[in-house]
Amino acid sequence: MGAKILPQNFGPCQGVTAIVFCYSKMPAHRQSLWAPILYSIILYLSIGIFPRAHNLILCYYMHMDKQTLQKIAARAVARAWDRLALRWPATKLGTVPQIEINGRLKTTAGRAWLETGKIDISKTLMIDFTRQIITETIPHECAHIAAYRIFGYGVKRGESHGKPWAMMMQDLGLPAEIYHDMIEKRVVKQMARKNKC
Hints:
Elements: H1 12-24, H2 28-48, H3 55-61, H4 66-85, H5 90-93, E1 98-102, E2 110-113, E3 118-122, H6 123-128, H7 130-151, H8 163-171, H9 182-196
Parallel strand pairs: 1-3
Antiparallel strand pairs: 2-3
Helix pairs in contact: 1-2, 4-7, 7-8
């Protein structure tokens, strides 16, 4: 009897829709309490179990404003910096970089300001590709700042993605890839939508 409650094609997207529906019916004072918790659960599931979950839908329906996105990004920076601290002394690494969600960045996923230790992340791309920004772009930019602080490397043109940066990426457990494919993915999505019309 219980097995017939859910339709046969009930999957991750329907489950997310059900959670979002319940969230939308909550009183406002409960929404403010539950929003970060529910979003963290869904984001964890999308990274670990459902890599195809639609991050754009999650961000919009869970009311992910700039401030909330900033908190998520700051946690990702802290995780990357903690991992680098296992390999390099804190005296060389320095303080954890500051991060800002920048609405002006459209095609650039992230940008590291080496002297000030600040990272800018594209708001548009973070909404569209939350998982990729957290797991790839933010560690990429952290590696730039770490390489600069430890080796004094990356200021001159053409040396920002050299061996010191690649070493930092290796310490973070990531391939030393320079370019992202988020813009191409977005174009493919847009073309797919047009073809459906």
